[in-house]
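in:
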């Protein structure tokens, strides 16, 4: 027996309707690659399994400077209080050995006057080390041991003051504090400049005090594999900038655009627009210089990954001349505009120069068309304004137009009247 066919067609059944329904795209979380240098310039690197920890104690001053502020303040306070307690114990032992703590001996000569307990010895230790004298407690000539302790405490106190105050001064005057006012553009751009495909970033200094001898270095960091099969997880490749011939010295008076020409020696030579988005590279920018006011060398760093590189964009100008003074508008510091740029790599453009020529011709035509549109819009606006003004003049001068006068003359044919104006 043949199976009975359904009355409803298969196309309008539940399986058919489900198959024809549009499905929403499923977005999966992309695993973020660890950056070698963060946007704020900090190094994203963790040191593990360091067995020789004693090397840090060999350079105590640098270790103290590199510590965080909370640890530095704790060490600062602990060191001073410990030294006061240590010498307070020494003064108490001197007084105890000389018999100054004996209540029966009140009128005899003491090593230190008015030191009768550990509390008074602690107060005398603070007065000696921080040179605060209240006049009540003082040392006498009776005990050479007390004189020796006084000399030792003064020397130790001077050393502690020099180390701790110097450490705090170096922490407050660190070079990275000056780097907070050295800014970089949020994104990097790739566009055609001077008939060459270029990688560009923008840097600026917010302070009026200049950076003397500013230098900029670019490095491309990516994972590479040598022909021998060796995997290099962090391969650093130096990148030359356009403004540098022998050095990268810059006159950082106003924001500058640092340009890198993508040529045969560039690590970006084989990357097209699509390959750049899929590549696993990071461009590190290092700005160094000497602070004009303090003479301390400072360094600012940032990096750009493939998602932060905009292909076919260019930075907008932000420096204008207003009343004889050059003005910088930092609100447009990172703004970019789209420009005609081929999506091919620099190698392909070198092999086929016609692609670049066609792209430049198209950009010129588009610019000309935009200029024509602007000019036509301006003409239309001016014509509208002109017609509006002429119409108003006509309306205003309507009372000055003389009225038409008609003259009637009789004719021989009858009583028809011919109007002669």
């Amino acid at each position: 027996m043949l199976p009975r066919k359904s009355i409803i067609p298969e196309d309008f059944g539940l399986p058919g309707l489900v198959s024809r329904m549009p499905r929403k795209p499923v977005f999966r979380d992309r695993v973020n690659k660890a950056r070698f240098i963060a946007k704020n310039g900090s190094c994203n690197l963790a040191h593990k399994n360091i067995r020789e920890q004693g090397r840090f104690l060999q350079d105590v001053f640098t270790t103290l400077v590199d510590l965080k502020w909370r640890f530095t303040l704790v060490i600062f306070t602990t060191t001073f209080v410990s030294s006061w307690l240590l010498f307070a114990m020494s003064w108490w032992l001197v007084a105890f050995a000389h018999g100054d703590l004996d209540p029966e001996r009140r009128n005899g000569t003491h090593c230190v006057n008015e030191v009768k307990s550990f509390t008074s010895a602690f107060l005398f230790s603070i007065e000696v080390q921080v040179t605060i004298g209240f006049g009540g407690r003082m040392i006498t000539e009776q005990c050479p041991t007390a004189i020796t302790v006084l000399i030792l405490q003064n020397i130790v106190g001077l050393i502690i003051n020099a180390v701790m105050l110097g450490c705090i001064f170096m922490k407050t005057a660190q070079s990275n504090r000056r780097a907070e006012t050295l800014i970089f553009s949020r994104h990097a751009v790739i566009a055609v400049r001077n008939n060459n495909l270029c990688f560009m970033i923008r840097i600026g200094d917010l302070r009026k005090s200049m950076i003397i001898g500013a230098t900029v270095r670019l490095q491309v960091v990516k994972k590479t594999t040598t022909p021998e099969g060796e995997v290099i997880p962090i391969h650093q490749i130096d990148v030359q900038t356009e403004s540098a011939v022998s050095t990268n010295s810059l006159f950082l008076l106003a924001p500058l655009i640092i340009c890198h020409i993508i040529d045969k020696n560039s690590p970006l030579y084989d990357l097209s627009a699509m390959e750049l988005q899929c590549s696993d590279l990071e461009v590190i920018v290092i700005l160094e210089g000497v602070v004009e006011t303090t003479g301390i060398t400072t360094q600012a760093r940032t990096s750009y990954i493939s998602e932060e590189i905009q292909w076919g964009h260019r930075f907008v100008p932000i420096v204008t001349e207003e009343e004889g003074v050059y003005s910088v508008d930092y609100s447009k510091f990172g703004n970019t505009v789209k420009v005609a740029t081929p999506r091919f790599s620099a190698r392909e453009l070198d092999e086929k120069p016609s692609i670049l020529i066609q792209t430049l011709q198209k950009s010129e035509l588009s610019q000309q068309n935009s200029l024509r549109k602007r000019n036509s819009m301006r003409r239309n606006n001016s014509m509208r304004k002109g017609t509006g003004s002429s119409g108003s003049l006509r309306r205003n001068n309507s009372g000055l137009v003389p009225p038409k006068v008609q003259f009637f003359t009789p004719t021989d044919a009858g009583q028809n009247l011919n109007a002669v104006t």
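note: The domain at 179-341 is CATH 2.60.40.1400 (Immunoglobulin-like).
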